[in-house]
Design goal:
Number of strands of chain A: 11
Largest sheet of chain B: 7 strands, mixed
Number of helices of chain B: 0
Largest sheet of chain A: 6 strands, mixed
Number of strands of chain B: 11
Helix content of chain B: under 10%
Helix content of chain A: under 10%
Oligomer: heterodimer
Distance between the termini of chain B: 37 Å
Structural class of chain B: mainly beta
Order of helices and strands of chain B: EEEEEEEEEEE
Largest interface: A-B, 24 and 26 residues
Radius of gyration of chain B: 13 Å
Strand content of chain B: over 45%
Strand content of chain A: over 45%
Structural class of chain A: mainly beta
Shape of chain B: globular
Radius of gyration of chain A: 14 Å
Chain lengths: 112, 114
Amino acid sequence: EDQVTQSPEALRLQEGESSSLNCSYTVSGLRGLFWYRQDPGKGPEFLFTLYSAGEEKEKERLKATLTKKESFLHITAPKPEDSATYLCAVQGRLGGSEKLVFGKGTKLTVNP
Amino acid sequence: GAVVSQHPSWVICKSGTSVKIECRSLDFQATTMFWYRQFPKQSLMLMATSNEGSKATYEQGVEKDKFLINHASLTLSTLTVTSAHPEDSSFYICSAKAGRNIQYFGAGTRLSVL
């Protein structure tokens, strides 16, 4: 069964203090690993998709990387508006399902 | 990016009544839509996969007779919670597949059953 574990559960940073969020996964053949941002009471907002180990993607202050066992979301010089819960999800190849399996997320708080 | 609209955003109903939630892809056609449920401090859990013009595929443990899904067009899927009970209170979120296998999500529906 595909599984995703995210750490830490919560992270508090000062504005400008860079850090990384971790997503460890087990999957029966990776079709894709997805990062989303979720604000309270809202649906997830798509950030990145990574398809193979070694791949990296960047968007503003965020950079996502992927290995065969985990993915990192690096946040450089975060701002208060980056505060949100960041979700990681994997999609496996088993049975041709398009199902996304999500972790519980990391709640990021950036203090001014 | 692709926009998915979900309605209503919040609904309160009495136990035993039915509630319908709509999910629309506004600027793209979606042959496949998905319905998730999220309990507080828990991960999103897939309930069912909805394919246009065919029956939905339900995840193990999800009652298909209780959670009715209809995907009648390439831009609309609906979820009806029948005979709702307090334990059905949750945050329901739909998504639609676009582009390179990317799911775009609606804003979610908070269901409270009294």
